[in-house]
Sequence to fold (446 residues):
Amino acid sequence: MKAGSFEWHPARSADEAVALLAEYAPQDGRVIAGGQSLVPSMALRLAFPAHLIDINGVEEFSRVRVEAGELVVGACVRHAAFHQPVEPGPLGRLLSRVVHDIAHWPIRQRGTFCGSLANADPASEWCLVAATLGARMVARSVRGTRVIEAADWFHGIMTTALADDELLAEVRIPLLPTGSRAGFYEFSRRAGDYALAMALVAWRDDGGRMREGRIGTGSIEVQPRRIATAEALLDGRPASAEAFAEAAAAVSAAVDPLEDFHTSAGYRRDLIGTAVRRAFEQAGD
Amino acid sequence: MATKMAITLHVNGTEHEVRVEPRRTLSDALRTDCGLTGTNVGCEHGVCGACTVLMDGVPVRSCLIFAVQAQGHELRTVEGLASDGALHPLQQAFIDNHALQCGFCTSGFLMLSAGTLEQQPDIDDEALREVLSSNLCRCTGYQNILRAVRQVRDAGKEAAR
Ligand SMILES: Cc1cc2nc3c(=O)[nH]c(=O)nc-3n(C[C@H](O)[C@H](O)[C@H](O)COP(=O)(O)OP(=O)(O)OC[C@H]3O[C@@H](n4cnc5c(N)ncnc54)[C@H](O)[C@@H]3O)c2cc1C
Ligand code: FES
Ligand code: FES
Fold:
């Protein structure tokens, strides 16, 4: 199908983008970044924005940089930027593995990291990364700038803490310390499909023992989240098949899985346990 | 209804002055306003890849870009592949390897492959499979498409030696 009518407002700077958003948000205006989620939903007539504020021409939004121990991803950094590590440490390598599971090659040339965070699909890989690694979202509007912690960002399926007149200007992800190990695994029925379950794990290796363990789940509940009961099982343990299996079982017990026509909660519960275990097994430095 | 905008699209080295509503997708503008019907439209929501074109050399879904957003970018469509009546090596390889049956997906696969081989002339088999998994073909199966693209890649590597 074809999208409904809208007026198009290309922004050339971040200031102009937030000013346009302030003006048009009350008239059903919103941001278009890569358009790889918004345009399909407009074509399906699930979304009818009256105004689109286009941020593709904003040069300053296309930058990714490291600053004060954080990877700072600008509003228009494409998924494809992560095909090569964007920083030389374990985080850069982790993101370059995760990116291959996001949609397809041509979609990754256009879709953006921040767009995924703003869209907050439960099956978004970048949302899982943000939730598990404790990213901070920087929201800008004409009213000012505020920083939103990952734990406060997600408000259920495709809903976030962002106000209508706020633009997600950048996402800041803490770098993983040297000696970190991190792994990601997702299951989907076909290459490029949204996942049915995905897991991200990370820990610091302390002479063979696991410290600061993080276990995040995605595609399984209304939003990605860390599973504290499973993380608690890791501290001080050697990275072993036994520890991984226990953590996986704790995750399965803790989640409240989404169900659909094809998949029961029981199946999804089992699947997320497997995803966690495989994320551990495939973890690299 | 939003008013039409006058825009210029650069397609295959030619400038097309067209008037479109902002909601006109690039795929529809190419087909309807530029008369370039080689780009096919299947699902219109990003799933099938039939509409793949090159924007600044990069394969993109033209049904997920509005035509107004394509101003100032270099676009290439399947009509731009052949030169002086000679088929592009990928077009010939698709024929030779029986990589199409009905042909509906073919322009999308050709542009996907052309952009990929230009960016990564020595792409390995695994990465090539990942790229080609982006588009759907309901007829031939994918092995022949893979074979055709590999053949062109290998010929290119041979020539570069
Ligand atoms: C066939 C297909 C398969 C896909 N598979 C996957 C997948 O497996 N995993 C996955 O994660 N994604 C998948 N996607 C979606 C894709 O990754 C999108 O790129 C992403 O979800 C949104 O990013 P975008 O830049 O395209 O945002 P857009 O589509 O431009 O915007 C999405 C929403 O976010 C808002 N928005 C965007 N940027 C900002 C901002 N900076 N500030 C405020 N609001 C903003 C928009 O207003 C809109 O509501 C798929 C898409 C398609 C078409
Ligand atoms: S028509 Fe564009 S992806 Fe199907
Ligand atoms: S040749 Fe018919 S869809 Fe591919």
Notes: The domain at 89-160 of chain B is CATH 1.10.150.120 (DNA polymerase; domain 1). The mean pLDDT of chain B is 96.
